[in-house]
Design brief:
homodimer; alpha/beta; UDP-N-acetylmuramoyl-L-alanine:D-glutamate ligase; 5-stranded mixed β-sheet; 36% helix
Chain lengths: 304, 304
């Protein structure tokens, strides 16, 4: 089924204890759409770049079968740029530079041929832009997943709360769940957040895996223990892309399929962190993914 | 099969954001033996208390079928006393008082009728005392599990490394695994630690569950997400007791049984934190435990 992904398409400059990059292609929609493309053959993106974005960069999307009709290219303007430096533990980072550029005035225009999309991923962006996107779709998608971050809770909480009423699934990390709910316990936090609108809540815990909450049910999946986390940038977006890409592939939304979608999303995220930027997730085979998912099964299965 | 548990039997005074206790019974051997008693009907403890330890306190062990022949009572002396205060996040705590008392000169005497024990849990104690215990057993138990903490890595590392060569399973938390190995990545840490002697390594991650490493295999189990963690004291010991108690019950040591033992240990630990001290784990039924284990199965099972 068709999947629409909206989010930033950007340049990142990343520094980790393992090295540093020049400007490389990044952004939520980039990671998420590449990740989703391994599951769903009808992925479309909406985003905006400047004319500093190269043809080869756009070619990378089309090589993965991703529809870029909704990717606006602003002449004479520059793409969103983010630069950050990870600490030694790789769990925390400092933002060095944020240049909004074209993203500062981003108006999400939905091409006519995108209107039939059945799955929608609202990647991390201003909640107002996420809400506008929903409003511009003539038919509500079957499933709307929203990803956000603490930044928007700090500066646009009212907009975010309004937008949350319109979505089915929210993905945030554990600290963000605590901030949004005002509850330390993730069980209590999940109850409050599920009352805000989403029917499903996914709490991403990085190296500790993820939790899925729905009604009174909860599912927990570990992260794959890795010898080396090379660059965590984009892992959350890659997770979200794999998650919704898998659901768009199977077509039916229920708790069991959500659980599997979390496993596939986690598997994709585990690849993402193994190299800088999108380097690893650009070049995967279906066999790579199947082998990684098998590792997740072995990692967490037991028979009592 | 018979299970010998050695460790502290003590008084604790605990303060959490939910309240505070007077002196209540605690100690590694207390939590571990109570926990193990739900699985194994032949649990024996070796420990030491002062004559401030009441008959009713000892009765609690025998009520659970625990053999206390190896519990020395030192006339005119006082039991080990620890007092601590948990921070609001319940993940960190300050030690307010540590009075070693009888534990300062503890000589682990093994009663003759303990000599045939097939499973041995060396609860958190000075590594030298743990090593002496192994040396005093005429026949090596089928499985030796050692629990320790950062304190001993700080002040008795050489002794600890010597003792690690003699055991089958080591249980420590993630920070301790990093300290012991000098590696941040738990995968790398596990390889180094498995080279130190133990064939199995269990890394306890509190609210994030536990990891089991053995040869090239790894198993991950979540912790049960709880609405409230009331008092984390003794959770690690309760985990260790449930873990080895389950193995002593099934009798056969292999990776699959270890995985199940971790689930049972985690289930017991999830009860422990729900009330102060041993209050909850003193009063469980087999039905309570079966229902909790079922929650773990539901929490982490998926079918791809």
């Amino acid at each position: 089924m068709s999947l629409l992904i909206i989010g930033s398409v950007a340049f990142d400059a990343i520094e980790t204890p393992f090295g540093k990059t020049d400007k490389i292609v990044g952004g939520a929609a980039t990671y998420a759409s590449l990740s989703a493309s391994y599951f769903c053959d009808d992925v479309k993106i909406v985003g905006v770049v400047g004319d500093d974005f190269h043809k080869e960069d756009i070619q990378e999307f089309t090589n993965h079968g991703i529809d870029v009709d909704g990717l606006q290219i602003k002449k004479g303007e520059k793409s969103f740029f983010w630069s950050g430096k990870y600490h030694n533990d790789m769990n925390s980072r400092d933002t060095l530079i944020t240049e909004l550029n074209v993203l500062g005035t981003f108006d999400p225009i939905i091409p006519e041929n995108y209107q039939d999309c059945e799955f929608l991923l609202l990647g991390n962006l201003a909640p107002q832009v996420q809400q506008t996107t929903i409003g511009r779709l003539t038919k509500r998608p079957k499933l709307i997943v929203l990803d956000t971050m603490n930044f928007w809770m700090d500066i646009a909480l009212t907009d975010l709360l309004e937008t949350l009423k319109l979505v089915d699934v929210l993905t945030i990390n554990d600290e963000e769940a605590r901030q949004l709910s005002g509850e330390y316990s993730l069980v209590k936090a999940s109850k409050k957040i599920l009352d805000m609108g989403p029917k499903y809540l996914i709490i991403k815990k990085g190296e500790h895996g993820a939790l899925l909450f729905h009604e009174d049910k909860v599912f927990s999946t570990p992260a794959l223990p890795l010898a080396e986390v090379f660059d965590p940038t984009g892992a959350g977006d890659t997770f979200a892309g794999g998650f919704i890409g898998y659901l768009a592939k199977v077509g039916t939304v229920n708790f069991n399929n959500m659980k599997n979608a979390i496993i596939f999303g986690s598997a994709m995220a585990s690849f993402c962190v193994e190299k800088f930027g999108t380097e690893k997730i650009k070049n995967l085979s279906q066999e790579d993914i199947a082998a990684r998912v098998k590792q997740f099964v072995e990692l967490s299965s037991f028979t009592i």
